[in-house]
């Protein structure tokens, strides 16, 4: 399985990230930076496959910044095509754990697409004033469940 990141890093920095396990635990999360929609994380499966379900945690340390909206798009592309299609758009919020640390939100997406597909995650962070924000959305503990074909 091959994955490609553009304008993204693996990190868990207290200034701009949230990750499963918290800070100082040698945990890392995928950090997708909003920068004119150039940031994404996508699968480039050598042999693509049908997918039943996707699960992951997501969050943004600055999700409650006044005047900003945080979303993540989960997209898919059928192998052999060039167009990414919207699977789901998710509002990103981040709560606090009992110790007052940022806590990510668990998401489960039923995909049930029987064609061979690849998956892409795209951060969508918008500002009410039209500026280009430079905040991050984090994804952690991503699991993709492949379809099992019964004989």
Short summary:
This protein has 151 residues and is an all-beta fold.
Q: What are the main properties of this structure?
A:
151 residues, mainly beta, nine-stranded antiparallel beta sheet, two-stranded antiparallel sheet, globular
Q: Report the structural category.
A: mainly beta
Give the percentage of residues in beta strands.
over 45%
Order of helices and strands: EEEEEEEEEEE
Inertia-based shape: globular
What's the total number of strands? 11
Low-confidence stretches: none
**Terminal residue distance:** 24 Å
Characterise the protein shown here.
The chain has 151 residues and is mainly beta. It contains no helices and eleven strands. The model has no long low-confidence stretch (mean pLDDT 79).
Topology summary:
Blueprint: E1 3-6, E2 8-11, E3 29-33, E4 40-43, E5 49-59, E6 68-78, E7 85-91, E8 95-96, E9 102-103, E10 105-127, E11 136-146
Antiparallel strand pairs: 1-4, 2-3, 3-11, 4-10, 5-10, 5-11, 6-7, 6-10, 8-9
């Amino acid at each position: 399985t091959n994955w490609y990141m553009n304008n993204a890093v693996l990190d868990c920095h207290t200034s701009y990230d949230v990750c499963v396990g918290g800070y100082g635990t040698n945990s890392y999360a995928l950090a997708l930076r909003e920068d004119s929609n150039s940031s994404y994380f996508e699968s480039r499966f050598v042999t693509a496959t049908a997918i039943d379900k996707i699960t992951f945690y997501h969050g943004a340390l600055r999700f409650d910044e006044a005047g900003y909206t945080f979303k993540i798009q989960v997209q898919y592309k059928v192998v052999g095509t060039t167009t990414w299609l919207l699977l789901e758009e998710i509002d990103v919020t981040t709560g606090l754990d009992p110790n007052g640390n940022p806590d990510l939100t668990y998401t489960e997406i039923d995909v049930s697409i029987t064609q061979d597909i690849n998956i892409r995650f795209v951060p969508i962070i918008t500002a009410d004033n039209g500026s280009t924000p430079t905040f991050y959305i984090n994804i952690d503990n991503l699991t993709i469940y492949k379809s099992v074909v019964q004989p």
